[in-house]
Amino acid sequence: MLRFFLVQRSGLGALDRFFTRLVPPLAALLLNGCASTAYYGQLAEGQWQLLRARQAVERVVADPATSPQLRERLTHAEQARAFASQQLKLPDNRSYRVYVELGRPFVVWNVFATPELSLQPVTHCFPIAGCVAYRGYYQLGAARGAAALMRQDGMDVYVSGVEAYSTLGWFDDPILSSMVGWGDERLATLIFHELAHQRFYVQDDTEFNESFASFVEQEGTRQWRVARGLAAVDRAHGPQRDQFIRLVLASRERLQAIYAGPLDDAHKRVAKQAEFERLRWEYRLLRDGQWGGDKRYDAWMYGPMNNAKLLPFGLYDQWVPAFTALFREEGGDWARFYERVEQLGRLPIEERKKALQRLMVNR
């Protein structure tokens, strides 16, 4: 996940202090006319608050007032951060070597939207980052308000909390308090994912960017576990997650066929709801069978369901098998893998998709 500003790159120190003052007015000035000033204003204000709140991790760890649990988490996070640069060849900078206490469960809330009878995301275009399939808000109330307006326009809408994001290297991205509650391994995976966005990013192709970062996260986590003497796959969590994602992606494919088919809109709406019921039925079979009653995904599955709620799965996972095949083709060499990824990123988008499809077929 990423966020962005049209400002100079900066680090800790005098330059950063200068830019914490500069970001709000600069964003309002440069981005006026691209979208509402109010929306960009809250982005600038939210990023500004993060910049002001950062502390070096080593200082937090050394502070006697730091809780033992946070000290331990940050120590493990710094070990994973070093592994990311040394072994995964991800950027070696001050990102995730600073910490911010947020005082809230998520750093931003993303609003996803699709038409009622389509899985095509409503995209939003910005300087530097290009077009992405969501809009981020630093306040939950603002996200819910934006979602309500889109629902009034007949859209399917989903609001999702986000624990971390990347500024693509424009700022030193912090470890956030929203990241540390998930345990050491989840914290490491978030760092790998967000640093992958810094390593390579293509404008106007959310599926490519998020699938690439998801692959780096997954393979990086596998290698991180092995480096610590653990099994390559977390048997307690890995299979369920993968099976759940496959279940949702299969439902997306069936929905796409319904929406592209010959039915009129009224019958498409009926078929849409029937597909959601099928998804829940298949989930129950999997949960009560292979998973032995594990209910970790119940809250998501039995909450309100619509196209937009399925959208992040296609965005984050669509091309992961293609990147897996590419990594194998390069013999697990990270440097050569990134070179190939950059070659793909330079292709026109339709050629890029065809190349990724070939990788998936040949894997």
Describe the structure.
The structure is a single chain. The chain is built from 15 helices and eight strands. The chain is mainly α. The chain has a domain at 14-227. Strand 4 (124-126) and strand 5 (130-132) form a beta hairpin. The longest helix is centred in the C-terminal third of the chain and has 24 residues, at 265-288. The two termini are 27 Å apart.
Summarize the structure.
The chain has 363 residues and is mainly alpha-helical. The protein has helices at 14-31, 37-53, 57-62, 68-86, 140-152, 177-180, 184-199, 206-227, 238-260, 265-288, 298-301, 307-317, 320-329, 334-345, 349-362, and strands spanning 55-56, 98-100, 108-114, 124-126, 130-132, 135-137, 156-162, 175-176.
Provide the fold topology.
Layout: H1 14-31, H2 37-53, E1 55-56, H3 57-62, H4 68-86, E2 98-100, E3 108-114, E4 124-126, E5 130-132, E6 135-137, H5 140-152, E7 156-162, E8 175-176, H6 177-180, H7 184-199, H8 206-227, H9 238-260, H10 265-288, H11 298-301, H12 307-317, H13 320-329, H14 334-345, H15 349-362
Parallel strand pairs: 2-8
Antiparallel strand pairs: 1-2, 3-6, 3-7, 4-5
Helix pairs in contact: 1-2, 4-7, 7-8, 8-12, 8-13, 9-10, 9-12, 13-14, 13-15
